[in-house]
Amino acid sequence: MLPPPDRSDLVAADRPALIGPLDTIEVDVFGIPDLSREMQVDASGRIAMPLAGTIEARGKTAQELAQAISAALSRRYVRNPEVTVNIKSSVSQVVTVDGQVVEPGLYPVTNQMTLMRVIASAKGLSEFARLEDVVILRSVGTQRMAGLYNIEAIRRGAYDDPPVYANDVIIVGDSPQRRLFRDFVSVTPLLAAPLIALLQ
Fold it and tell me: Is the pLDDT of residue 187 over 80?
């Protein structure tokens, strides 16, 4: 299987929602309405709050950011602050879908996103899409990887619908990455299991 990215790749194995640049969050400080507000994370992944100062939000869960804000407020004479953070909208947790789909583009990634669900989000495959030529590109640590999948095989239940993560790129149809697999597929044209390759 194509391995899941680690936390440094923005998504941990348990797939929590992580905050990223330009996401909109809601911060509530119990009992202090002047500090409660909705705000957008800046392009560098930080937020700025009165009394708390500038705080790194990128890569944190809502709970982790709430703890960081609480710690910052505690240092500025707010006694036992109770902070909650909610992610209102996320633009950083997206997957790119390209190639032979009805509506290529960027689509938000939820906790349960899979290849078939992403393709459905893109309004499905185009009329003459190559079902056996679907590539997922992913970075895991410093390594770029590609996985070749067959939609027809997934529909038949030959293997599981693979999970999709933030920053994945999905290409349906012929592509330079797809051509990496041509020698394998010439030997096993039915593609009974997904193929994984490391990219240079």
Answer: no
Q: Where, residue-wise, is CATH 3.30.1950.10 in the chain?
A: 18-89
Q: What average pLDDT does range 54-66 have in this prediction?
A: 94
**CATH 3.40.710.10 given to domain 94-199:** no
Q: Give the burial class of 134: count Cβ atoms within 10 A of its Cβ; 0-12 exposed, 13-18 middle, 19 or more buried.
A: buried
Q: What is the mean pLDDT of residues 83-100?
A: 89
Cα gap 104→49, rounded to integer Å:
38
Residue located via tokens 């910052």: 72
DSSP string, 125-170: B-TT--TT-EEEEEEETTEEEEEEE-HHHHHHTSS---B--TT-EE
Which has the closest alpha carbon to 3: 189, 145, 186, 158? 145
Contact 27, 161 (CB under 8 A): no
Amino acid at 90: S
Using the CB atoms, write b or e for 79-104: b if 16+ within 10 Å: eebebbbebeebebbbbebbbbbeeb
